[in-house]
């Protein structure tokens, strides 16, 4: 049997009411990832772009939920978010990285949002000019 150093989830639970994705790894690590953090840090080209400087700051995602969570092979899940975003593949490695870095990522996101004059609230008028701007997605790992 082949062994790997990459942790693998042993349990993934979608908590709709608290808007958290609970992920437990075979190492014993347990993380509760807010849906909003997952959405604004989605590893998709829509959020990250196709290269440095092409990131898109995500605004108005406070109330986002996960409508479905689809398995992708034996290496990832694809959340379907309530705002229609469905192109991010969250590998086990990426989920672990999000869990380990969620506090710093969240604080960085809030700082960038504030600097851009954006809001976490959906339909906030200050978000309109930011909807098409580039720059400000979560840092790459």
Written account of the structure:
25% of the residues lie in helices and 23% in strands. With 141 residues, it is of the alpha+beta class. The strands form two sheets. The chain has a three-stranded antiparallel sheet. Strand 1 (9-15) and strand 2 (20-25) form a beta hairpin. It is globular. The relative contact order is 0.20.
Topology summary:
Elements: E1 9-15, E2 20-25, E3 30-34, H1 35-40, H2 45-48, E4 66-72, E5 76-81, E6 90-91, H3 92-116
Antiparallel strand pairs: 1-2, 2-3, 4-5, 5-6
Summarize the structure.
It contains three helices and six strands, in the order βββααβββα. It has helices at 35-40, 45-48, 92-116, and strands at residues 9-15, 20-25, 30-34, 66-72, 76-81, 90-91.
Beta percentage is 15-25%
In helices, the fraction of residues equals: 10-25%
Contiguous low-pLDDT stretches (5 residues minimum) are none
Instruction: State the shape.
Output: globular
For the report, how would you describe the main beta sheet? Answer: 3 strands, antiparallel
- The counted number of beta strands is 6
Arrangement of strands in the largest sheet: 1-2-3
Q: Which key phrases capture this entry?
A:
141 residues; alpha+beta; three-stranded antiparallel sheet
């Amino acid at each position: 049997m082949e062994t790997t150093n990459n942790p693998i989830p042993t349990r993934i639970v979608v908590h709709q009411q608290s808007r958290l994705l609970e992920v437990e790894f075979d190492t014993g690590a347990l993380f509760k990832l807010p849906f909003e953090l997952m959405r604004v840090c989605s590893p998709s080209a829509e959020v990250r772009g196709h290269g440095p400087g092409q990131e898109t700051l995500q605004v108005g995602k406070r109330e986002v939920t996960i409508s479905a969570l689809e398995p992708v092979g034996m290496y990832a899940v694809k959340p379907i978010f309530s705002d229609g975003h469905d192109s991010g593949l969250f590998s086990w490695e990426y989920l672990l990285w999000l869990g380990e870095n969620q506090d710093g990522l969240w604080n960085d996101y809030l700082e960038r949002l504030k600097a851009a004059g954006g809001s976490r609230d959906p339909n906030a008028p200050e978000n309109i000019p930011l909807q098409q701007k580039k720059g400000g997605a979560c840092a790459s790992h």
